[in-house]
Structure formats: C-alpha cells, structure tokens
Amino acid sequence: MTFRVYFVTPDGASDDLVLAAVQGGATAVQLRDKQASDAAMIAQARRLRARLAPLGVPLIVNDRLAVVLAARADGLHIGQSDGDPLRMRAALGPATILGLSIETGAQLAAVPPGAVDYLGIGPVRATATKPDHAAPLGMDGLARIVRAAPVPAVAIGGIGAADISELKQMGCAGIAVVSAIASAPDPEAAARDLARTWSHA
After folding, report:
1. Is the peptide bond before 94 cis (omega within 30 degrees of 0)?
2. What is the Cα–Cα distance from 114 to 116, expressed in whole angstroms?
3. What is residue 124's three-state secondary structure?
4. Which domains can be identified in the chain, with CATH numbers?
5. Coil, helix or strand for 149?
6. Active-site positions?
7. By C-alpha distance, which of 119, 35, 131 is closest to 79?
8. What are the phi and psi torsion angles at 79 (to 5°)?
9. Backbone region of residue 92 per phi and psi (left: phi > 0; alpha: psi in -120 to 50; beta: other values)
10. What does pTM read for this prediction?
11. CA 176, CA 1: separation in Å to the nearest integer?
C-alpha cells in the first residue's frame, strides 16, 4: 500500500470529492463519517470501491468493522477507543489492511506485534477537523514515535504541503489530510500539489 497522500474524508463527503482527490494524486482514501448510518456508509463504500479498485487506490473505512465486512473494503482504521487490534485482525483476516491511530509513545509500545499494517500518528498540530483530539505532538514528538514505529507511519493533524520535506526526512510513509483537500477551492488541484510536493521532496 502506498501512503504518500492519504485522504481522510470529512463527514458527509460526496463521491465526487473523493474521486477528485484521487484524480489529483491521493494514493489512499479513508472513508470517515461519524454521522452516517452503517447502511449509508456501506452503500457509499461499495460505490467508491468499485471506482477506486481499478485505479489501485485502497479504500479504508474508519472505525466501523461491519461496514468493512459488508462492503468488502480494503481496510479498517481504528482509534485507541475503537476496539482491540488483535480482535479486529481476527475478524478481518490477514489480507485486509488494518491501521491504528497513535497519540503517544506509550500507545506505540502497547501495539500488539503483527496486528496492524500501518500507524496514523498525531495530531502533529491542533486541528479544527477533530476538536476532541489529543495534545499535539509537534514535529519532535512525531519524530520520536516515527523512529520507533515497527510499521509504516503516516502523519496527521494540521499539516500540509509545506511540511512534507521534513516529514519525509524523518521517515514518514505519507501525509494524511482532511481539510487540506476537502476545504480547498479545487480539491483535485490541492491533492495534485500534495502529490507533486511529496514526489519532489
């Protein structure tokens, strides 16, 4: 899986927004919607997977195991309060991607070996996208966790194109963004700028 530009959807994101991000160069998509019903998310996940699979872009669902299984999505991403990674791995099987959010070094140390495929580490900075986030790590805190991560690490939280060079140098596998694409006047162009910046960093 290629994480370079990992687009995390805001609540209520349209299929068109997701496809614009991918057309611009997003290499992975996380369908995240805290408001939608499981049925609505299953329907959207099925539509998106049909469009993204031929492009080689994995569709990962945030938090909802039932949606992943029903829609046959490519992966599941869970937070610290969303369930035990080992139980999720058992339910998903070995071939489905499993990601885990990490906010502290202690959480990293508690990750069961072999359970997850990648880590989403953050927030790097305070962000309005997720008002209840943990204390920001800052670049130094992020770097410490990335260095110790046993699997690919994706940085998230208040970051953008200007941070890519530093993030890439510290060993991040990619940058996860919400508003940098979703709130841009032209989401496709915003994704293209992030992809191009990553490639050239």
Report:
1. no
2. 6
3. coil
4. 5-200 (3.20.20.70)
5. coil
6. 32, 101, 130
7. 119
8. -95, -175
9. alpha
10. 0.95
11. 14
